[in-house]
Fold this protein.
Amino acid sequence: MAEVFARLSSRAIALGLGTLLLVGACGGGGGGGGGGGASTTDVTVWTAWGGAELKAFKDVLAPFQSKTGIKVHITTNRDSTNQIANGIAAGTDLPDIAPGPTDPVQVKDWVTKGALKPIETALGSGFSDYVSNTYSALITPPGGATDDPYIGVIGGKHYELMVKTQVKGLIWYNKKVFTGQAPKSFDDLLAINPSQYGAQKLFCAGFESGAASGWPASDQIDNIIMRQSGDQVYTSWIQGKTKFTDPAIKLGYQTFLKEVSDQAVYGGRNTALSTNFGKAGDPMFKTPAGCLFLEQATFITSFFQQDFASLNLKAGTDFDFFAHPSVNSQYDGNVNGFYDNFSMYNDTPAARQLMQYMATKDAQQIWANDGGTLGAIKSLTYNDPVFKRAADVASGAKNLLVTAGDFMPSDMQKAFWQSLLNVTRNPGSLDSELRHLDQVQAAAYTSS
Amino acid sequence: MDQIITAVVAVIGVPLVLLGYIIGGEKVIERLPGRLQDWARPYFWALPAVGFATIFMVYPMARTVVISLRNQADSDWASGAWGVFANYHYFFTFPDTLTALRNSVAWLIFYTFFAVFLGLVIAILVDRVRYESLAKIAIFLPVPISAVAASIIWKFMFDYQTPGTPQTGTLNALLGIFHRDPTPWLIDEPVVNNAALIFVGIWTAVGFCMVIISASLKAISSEVLEAARIDGANEFQIVRLVVTPLLWPTITVVGTTMLINALKTFDIVYVMTNGAYDTDVIATRMFSQMQSAHYGRAAAVGVVLFVAIVPLLIVNIRRFQQQEEQR
């Protein structure tokens, strides 16, 4: 009897356990999946965009989907580079189209492994049009080089399709307050007396940005270094070949500190450190004005309009910008910008068609119409006067140089951003900060 | 497609195999002679659990130790200062990790002490009032809040605005009432900002300590306390000489749990400062090394953290065992 019972109960337990596991597993196992095969009807796209940017992207895709009947499956994925890296390593499915990697080593590696498909292949006969239409700085490696991983060019082939771009280092001002002429040089800018225009301080600044605090400061110093010591120093510094204690980089830090001294910056250094970048420009629109200028990229206009909704601020009439003034006239062609790109990871007919579509003027014009960005194509029309002029800055650029921190190893980036916060807080610590950054650089770029 | 197949195999195949293992295995064991059956059955039933624990816990642990001795590309053993222990050399000599170590020690001492001490004091105090449950709820409220949400709440509390303008941060608004200049709480290094972060940690932990200690306080029989009172002890003496010694096993368990929490601290620091102005702790260092693909260094941090936590775990488990025996 006991034996029968034991047998029964063990079976019952086994059955129960198995069923439980099954039920639990099935409950959690739904979803997943994805494309696969050389689809002519479906294409999967990963993007980091959300909110207004995602809406604009959907607007861009709408005519494509209705015209071709191809279904575009968008996934907002802010960790796409890591996931694609894992996918490549594991040999699992990749999205058909997703942004290319930013790490130059990764770009080369993925090209070698065949994960990235050339834009030449994707666009076919349309490639020459793409080259002639797009801002040259986005597709042409400087000095006739065959490699520039920062714009996705390896061995003379392109692996990143440029679709949008933004210009950084613009000096924004309230048109009702600053009525003077745009200064010619950086020294002229620093020499402007804010009280002449009834403003308290020359600059506003806001370096707080959660876990990424410090990046707005890094944009400022990037613009200084690339336009003060040139693109070669700038690029070799990003690559970890120029030390932070190098005189050129130190000079950059010293010049940056002039913008954030207690005399120059609204509210003093602690205010600059505690203020979120999105709110940094607010004092420009107060009466009396807290400051004359805010240095920031094109995207900042939406923050002005949001924060002062009641003033109904209009670009071009209420606020405007001038381009970063000359630091060293030899390097005036260096402009700091960033871009959005798509790479093709699966060469399917549908993916090719979508890539071809996104390279067209019609597609990019929709992005331009939705506002908040420049397209990658030179000849788009912009309703917004600010972007009309930003497009001039982009087309005048000899080199559109990427933002340094974004292309450094991430512990270098973190230390670089935080060093700018530290020297802003305590300018006397500059030398020890730079020595420390050299140590981080030596450790971050080596692979012991 | 591959992913679907993998998923199907994982969710249906694995349980089926387990089921087959159990049914088939039992059939085999049943045929064995009686004594052998009794000997084999427990091992047979324990094997899947031990197997899973090995695959999902022991193996990753061993692998972490191995990775900590490998170079960045995982192509060869690490080399450099300290030879194969190069990643540990980095951990114990690099200025950033030393700062992180210093901060983690501060967390260990202050977070643990104040969380347990305040938990104990509050548990004893609320035990003596009529609105006990109300007071306990108030103190316990921060516990279920996730650390990320708590950090965001306290970021607002610590907010700093230009002196002379309205202060939106509660603490600086309070300072303003006393005509004091606002303090940039999260920026003033190294004492103010680290203290501010540790304070947030304590705020989220006191309720937990209080509840556990309070429960154990209720278990002290009133006869013991009465006896002490009859013997002429005053309330302070009772707390110091009777209650606290009786609570000591609980305090040790709560204390070691808090020590482990302090060592693991990550979210509060990551959300509020991400290590800016010298506030990094070892877990945030581990994360930033992982992010920059220095897996060897990250693993070395993990191993050091693990080695630091093991003695605490042993103390904790011993205490639990003692308590079990006393019952």
Observations:
- Residues 2-67 of chain B form one domain.
